Predict the 3D structure of the following.
Amino acid sequence: MNYPACLLMLAAVLAAFPAAAEKADRDKPMNAEADALRYDDLKQTSVFTGNVVITKGTIIIRGARVDVMQDAEGYQTAIVIAAPDKLAFYRKKRDLVDEYIEGEGERIEYDSRADTVKFIRQAVLRRYVGANLADESAGDLIVYDNPTDVFTVDSGQQTRTAINPSGRVRALLAPRNKASAPGAPVAPPPSGPTPGAPSLRSSTTLGNDKK
């Protein structure tokens, strides 16, 4: 039985100030560690296997196998495959705030030109404020757009588990004012907006909207 896909969109509202250094992650060199490497200079492809760890600016990627392709302009795409019964991993710092995005899936696809990440099958996306978990979403496919901090979550057959037999999208979204400083008293708001500080808010769309 096929369950209808459910779409969840969370939008980030960014102030009109220049982005911090983290926005340049896609332009940073890609460094890799692995047990083995097969490199094709003519095709500009690299295949890393065995406990692969990729770093690119604040980005960290881990998996059993990572296929990296580079185009003529130097942009890179990476396909990360998890080991059996494990999940591939992705982590990135958000701009201008002490927040981190982490994601897992059986397969991860990173595109440095579009600056997007896809988490495929058993997909989970989390937002941390410092070391504290603030938000968590799970589904069959999660697509995260780094420039806009917008992500979509779709349900599917792979989402169904003993804990979630319906296979629907699951999300835990903390209030912004409480998630910004877990365990600490809320400081009085400043007299004006903090220059350059982005904030996340839920969008008004929830359901089978346009993907």
